[in-house]
Each structure stands twice: as structure tokens, then as C-alpha cells.
Design brief:
Elements: H1 2-25, E1 35-40, H2 42-45, H3 66-74, E2 77-80, H4 88-92, E3 104-108, H5 116-123, H6 132-144, H7 146-160, E4 165-169, H8 188-211, E5 215-217, H9 220-223, H10 250-266
Parallel strand pairs: 1-2, 1-3, 3-4, 4-5
Helix pairs in contact: 3-10, 5-6, 6-8, 7-8
Length: 267
């Protein structure tokens, strides 16, 4: 009787271990996918990819934009709030989906606040027009005003999504010194100044991101060799329609932004 009981006990334990091993190897039956909110401006929405969702807005959100690509790679449920033309106050109005359960957040903003698009438009005008004053004004704004705006936004994001992995996404340098667009006369000197402004924007945004404990994705190096007029452009030059100009194209999103942002989100 004792031997029979011991044998039965051994069988029961063995079965329990086997079942337990199977269960450990199985995914949860109703696993909830992580949540990802993409905030920001046209560099997040996908302006420049030339294909957009018909969502009743002018936000130019694209299935080729890095937030869509990365949400698929992460298996995450995406709230695609980014919108073309957004400035910091507009992004403050994109935060409705953020909560204590939000897993991932990306945000790109600051270029429109600094008037970068208007500056490039001025630079592209034919001689005798110049954009020296506009570039100086943009740089002064980036140094003196933008940090405070970003501090307010980043603080609000952290308050609303206290547990989220937040990644701040920067902007590339757009030019390589060549003039290949007859309709946009941006001289090599102006291109250098615009790239210096992009550098200032990157370092300013990176500093504020670090101050709030957020990761920063710097795309300047990956886009080197892929600027406007390079053989393999990841950024559109002067385009038709004009709104597509000086924004990352599909390759810029898939090869430039998406891998770096995905890595930063995974930590």
C-alpha cells in the first residue's frame, strides 16, 4: 500500500511538472498588446511620403511614417496623434490618450515653433533676397524661447504617462552644399547656416529631453549622405505639391527613422 501510494505521488508530481512546463512555454491567452502614442509634427505624421490616410484632417498621417512601422514591429496598439504643422501648443492638445497604462510615447516638435519652414522658403527665393535675418531670428528663438516650451510639454507628458518609455525624436540636416533644384536657389552658404540651425535645434531638444529623463533619437548622422541633392535622397527637395518639400521620404522613414526609434523604444 505504501509503495502504491508513493508511486502514485511520483506520477502526480511528474504530470504536474510536465503541465507546468507546457504552460510556461505558452503565451498568455488574452495578452494585451502594449500601447504607443505618437505625438508631434509633420516629421512624425509622415508628410513627404506622398500617401496619407483619408481621416478628415489635414494632418497628413501616413502608413509609411515611422510610428506606423514601429508600432507593427513592437506589436503595439498605436494612437497616431501627430499632425502636420504642429507646434508645441498643438502637441499639448494631442495628449488625450496618455494615461498610467501607456507603454510608449514618441514626440517630435520644435521645428515649426522656430519657423524653420518659413526660413527655408525665404532662403529659396531668387537673388537679391537673402535669409540671414530669418536664420538669426530662428536661432535666437531656439536658444531663448524653445527650451521653456519643451520643458512644459515634457513635464505634462510625464505627468500623464508616468510609466511610459518616452522617446524624443530629432530632425536631420537637410543640405549637402549642392544646388540641384533650379526652382529653389539656396546658396551653399545659406545651406551651411540652415544645417547649423538644425544642429542647434538638435542639441537644444536633446538637452531638454535628457533633463526630463527621456531618450533622444538623433538622426543627423544616419541622414548624412542622404540629404537633398545626394544620390540617395532620404529627404525631398523642392517638390510638387510644395508641402512635400524638405521632409523625409518613405526611405527616410523606413531606413532613417524607424530603426533608431524602435531601438530607443525597446531601451
Amino acid at each position: 500500500m505504501g509503495r502504491l501510494f508513493a508511486r502514485a505521488l511520483q506520477v502526480t508530481i511528474a504530470l504536474g511538472v510536465a503541465v507546468g512546463s507546457v504552460l510556461v512555454g505558452m503565451p498568455a491567452a488574452n495578452a494585451v498588446p502594449p500601447t504607443y502614442t505618437a505625438l508631434g509634427d509633420s516629421y512624425s505624421s509622415g508628410t513627404g511620403t506622398r500617401t496619407y490616410y483619408q481621416d478628415g484632417t489635414n494632418c497628413q498621417r501616413s502608413s509609411y511614417a515611422y510610428p506606423v512601422l514601429d508600432s507593427q514591429r513592437l506589436g503595439a496598439t498605436l494612437t497616431f496623434a501627430a499632425c502636420a504643422g504642429a507646434r508645441v501648443p498643438d502637441v499639448q492638445n494631442q495628449l488625450a490618450s496618455l494615461n498610467a497604462g501607456t507603454n510608449y510615447v514618441t514626440v517630435s516638435v520644435g521645428g515649426n515653433d522656430a519657423g524653420f519652414s518659413s526660413v527655408i522658403t525665404q532662403c529659396a527665393k531668387p537673388w537679391p533676397y537673402t535669409c540671414t535675418t530669418q536664420i538669426a531670428n530662428s536661432q535666437n528663438f531656439i536658444r531663448n524661447t524653445l527650451p521653456g516650451l519643451l520643458n512644459g510639454l515634457y513635464s505634462t507628458i510625464r505627468t500623464r504617462a508616468p510609466a511610459a518609455r518616452v522617446v524624443v525624436v530629432g530632425y536631420p540636416r537637410l543640405f549637402n552644399g549642392e544646388e540641384c533644384n533650379p526652382g529653389a536657389r539656396i546658396s551653399p552658404g545659406e545651406q551651411t547656416s540652415l544645417n547649423q540651425t538644425a544642429d542647434l535645434l538638435a542639441t537644444t531638444i536633446a538637452g531638454r529631453a535628457a533633463a526630463h529623463g527621456f531618450a533622444f533619437v538623433d538622426v543627423r548622422t544616419p541622414f548624412t549622405g542622404h540629404a537633398v541633392c545626394d544620390d540617395a535622397e532620404w529627404v525631398n527637395g523642392l517638390s510638387n505639391p510644395v508641402g512635400e518639400s524638405y521632409h523625409p521620404n518613405r526611405t527616410g522613414h523606413s531606413a532613417g527613422y524607424a530603426p533608431l526609434v524602435e531601438a530607443a523604444l525597446r531601451g
